Amino acid sequence: MSAPALEAIEREVVECRRCPRLVAWREQVATEKVARFRDETYWGRPVPGFGDPQARIVLVGLAPGAHGSNRTGRMFTGDGSGDFLWPALHAAGLASRPDSRRRDDGLRAIDLWITAAVRCAPPDNKPLLSERDNCAPYLVRELAALDRARVVIALGAFGWDAALRTFAALGATVPAPKPRFAHGAEVEIGRWRVLGSYHVSQQNTFTGRLTRPMLDAVFARAVDVAQAGGVASR
User: Fold this and answer.
1) For a Cys-Cys bond, which of 17, 49, 56, 177 suits 226, CB 3.0-4.6 Å?
2) Which CATH superfamily is domain 2-227 in?
3) Where exactly are the structural domains of the chain?
4) pLDDT in tens, 57-83
């Protein structure tokens, strides 16, 4: 069953100390904090995946935000990226509410699992390739455990590449040349259909590179494909 396997992965993730640079950074941020959160206790550990163990849709981000997920302990929770993401997920029927503030706020993901290529907040939001590779087995095991998953939404080129590497590790044949990331890109690999979206970081949302209608279109497409059983119909 999916749930016990995912729970086992979560236990390993939250205790992980494979990357000394990331361990030092996440713990420094959790200790020094920022003024607006100075009275809060930071999570300060790797952030596990979150959502519905029976999900047909998986969303893959880059890494936790220093004062978002690294503070709250849940993916895309408590920062600007999450503030943009969750209303769109709620409108698509993939979340029980349009905001995510803390781990115990009662939010439920619906037919959706949310995870990331790297589980610790990295300095400047830029993990090293070695750190990506250290974290990669967790994503492989998650996707293997999510046996109903048919659609993977990759946020940004980093998430896209992580998804393709994960498919290959699970025995799927990734086309050569490797499919290129773009917003709205779509390709079928093995039993999964991967959809690309610009990341929901404020760097993209504040500049208008990613708008709400653009994100809504990706989520609507993901729901359509999932409901069709993964078959790529248009």
Assistant:
1) 56
2) Uracil-DNA glycosylase-like domain (3.40.470.10)
3) 2-227
4) 999 999 999 999 999 999 999 999 999
